[in-house]
Amino acid sequence: MKKITSHRNPLIKDYLKCLQGKASLSEHNNRLANNRLAVEGFNLLEEALAKKFPIETLFFCPEVASEEPLRALLDAVNPETEVMQITPSLLKRITLTENPQGVAGVVVYPEYSWHDILSATSFYGVLVDRLQDPGNLGTIIRTAAAAGFTAVICTPGTVNPFNPKVIRSSAGSLFHLKICKNKEPATFLSELKKKRVAIVSTEIDSDQAYYQVNYKQPILLMVGNEREGVSQSLASMADHRIRIPIEEGVDSLNAAVAAGVVMFEARRQNQN
Questions:
Q1: Is the confidence at residue 32, as pLDDT, over 90?
Q2: Which member of 6, 148, 184, 204 has the greatest number of CB atoms within 10 A?
Q3: Does residue 179 carry a pLDDT above 70?
Q4: Mean pLDDT of the chain, nearest integer
């Protein structure tokens, strides 16, 4: 097992590129490319392993990491993973949390296309349109996984779903879903309509309440920008434009909260 002491080490430089979203995509099976995600903390790395996402490089700092979880993580990684011991000063350089747990790594996550998303036998997805806050997007991803949805699709102008803050906010739930950055959302919606997927868009002024929709069918829920909502060009393609009734005088719900209310209504209907 090798030890790294210099911040000029190529593996450290590569991790920092991943952290900044500047790492190049690598080809995979001549079809998909791979996102290389900078991930820190036991929970996220354990979730990645549990869902069979490869860890390319694993860094650990024995002075900081708890002994038993560290031993279990080191035992679980693939033999092909480059495992590197680092110093506390290097750990501080590559991690973003105030109290790091002593482990970090580069995780490989496929670059799913909307064609891959559509191939799912049962489609329950969330389209996020121009959402800016990484905490909101991470919470939507986490809630989607908890509610039994299968995919989150991000339109141009949405915060990068592989931003470290999004990854942390998702609490590892992105490894339970297919996350897709979609440059052609209107084309994607047209294809969904051909497959008889019901498209539902949140809207403050709609006459239809969210619970009046039949969610016992393939669904795409559209959630929009924190200030402007779903763009009119996409909202006009919706089969249902819904609102969540709230107290008079209250401006609106947080985007992630609104998405969660609708997703769990879909879950409630399907469980019943």
A1: no
A2: 148
A3: yes
A4: 92
Pairing of β 26-28 and β 103-110? unpaired
- Partnered with residue 229 across adjacent β-strands are 225
Residue written as tokens 């969660």?
A: 260
Please state, in angstroms and rounded to a whole number, the distance separating the CA atoms of residues 21 and 107: 13
Report which secondary-structure segment, H or E, holds 269: helix 255-271
Q: Are residues 179 and 59 in the same domain?
A: no
Q: Burial letters for 83-93: b for 16+ Cβ neighbours within 10 Å, e otherwise?
A: bbbbbeebbee
CATH number for position 228:
3.40.1280.10
pTM for this entry? 0.92
Domain residue limits at 162: 114-271
Q: At 240, which amino acid appears?
A: H
Q: Which 3-state string (H, E, C) describes 208-252?
A: EEHHHCCCCCCEEEEECECCCECCHHHHCCCCEEEECCCCCCCCC
Kindly calculate the radius of gyration of the chain based on its CA atoms and give it in whole angstroms: 20
Position of tokens 């790492």?
A: 23
